[in-house]
């Protein structure tokens, strides 16, 4: 995780590449008969990069909803749902927002502005010179807690944010509710210090994909003399570049089931002029290419949506893999190679 000024953290994307470290030697796919406890690519990394990689994979095992005092969260307003976000590092709590007549009668009803709408927690950042002071951007209030973990990138913080219901387009942003978020985060400190496991969560959909180390794809790139791994390393993602090759990044995500079906259908039926459909070891996928950049999205078990087991966590999700690759070939073989390997790892995961 890269050291950044605290005020810049909201603008950082989980796919931003910074420094790189080379993994020397031929990458060889691990076999079932291998007795090595780690993927071969890890053995050639520096101790510092292994530490960062271990931290990222450790965070994949954490239930982000366990970082929140749910009783304190429930005192803000009526909770309608608790569960994962599209980025599995995050937990989202949605609130019921009362409605009122819209400004124009033909628009029906609109949300009453300025009330708690969405609480989110789980995202990690490394900062230098940061504090735990509450802050806001527009109508969104946020506060971060130091976790006690530190590496060469900086001191790790967990982010909490509270968004409020808004006005019509063009209206002034509602006042952020930092007076609600700050005591909630302070009440959540003991929860953040002792998170529980994703595997034990009733709030999260349980998917084998979230157990996959996306950097393990490197071991399938046989014949590569060197592979550079980009830092910072984030949970559920990996960015790398074979020597003499081009960059590829892998991100593990969720997508709401209805949205996933809508995304795949035009490509599958041949109606899309942008996305092409393909089958990756049984996973349905779309791929698009533009200006030497390829994006492949593979949906795993599209016909079997998953959800949490808690009554407030019933939103159906589909696990998905997003691969971005630099490739002048419009058929995007580099993205296909990486995505196929992730699907294979998913099928082999326990």
TrEMBL record:
Name under which the protein is recorded: DUF3558 domain-containing protein
């Amino acid at each position: 995780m890269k050291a950044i000024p605290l005020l810049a953290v909201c603008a950082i994307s989980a796919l931003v590449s910074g420094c790189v470290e080379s993994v020397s030697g031929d990458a060889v796919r691990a076999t079932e008969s291998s007795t090595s406890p780690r993927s071969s690519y890890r053995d050639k990394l520096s101790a510092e990069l292994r530490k960062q990689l271990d931290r990222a994979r450790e965070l994949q095992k954490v239930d982000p909803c366990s970082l929140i005092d749910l009783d304190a969260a429930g005192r803000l307003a009526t909770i309608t749902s608790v569960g994962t976000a599209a980025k599995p590092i995050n937990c989202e709590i949605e609130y019921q927002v009362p409605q009122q007549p819209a400004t124009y009668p033909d628009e029906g009803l609109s949300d009453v502005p300025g009330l708690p709408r969405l609480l989110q927690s789980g995202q990690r950042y490394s900062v230098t010179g940061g504090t735990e002071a509450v802050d806001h951007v527009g109508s969104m209030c946020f506060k971060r807690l130091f976790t006690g973990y530190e590496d060469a990138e900086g001191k790790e913080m967990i982010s909490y944010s509270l968004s409020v219901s808004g006005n019509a387009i063009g209206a002034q942003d509602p006042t952020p509710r930092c007076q609600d978020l700050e005591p909630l985060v302070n009440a959540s400190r003991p929860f953040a210090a002792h998170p529980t496991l994703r595997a034990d969560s009733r709030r999260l959909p349980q998917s084998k994909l979230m157990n996959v180390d996306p950097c393990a794809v490197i071991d399938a790139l046989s014949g590569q003399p060197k592979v550079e791994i980009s830092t910072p390393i984030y949970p559920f993602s990996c960015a790398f570049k074979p020597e003499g090759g081009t960059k590829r990044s892998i991100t593990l995500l969720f997508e709401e089931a209805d949205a996933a079906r809508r995304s795949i259908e035009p490509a599958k039926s041949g109606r899309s002029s942008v996305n092409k459909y393909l089958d990756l070891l049984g996973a349905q996928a779309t791929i698009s290419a533009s200006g030497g950049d390829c994006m492949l999205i593979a949906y795993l078990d599209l016909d079997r949506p998953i959800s949490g087991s808690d009554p407030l966590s019933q939103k159906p999700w589909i696990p998905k893999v997003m691969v971005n690759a630099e490739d002048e070939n419009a058929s995007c073989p580099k993205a296909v190679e990486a995505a196929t390997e992730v699907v294979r790892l998913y099928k082999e995961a326990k």
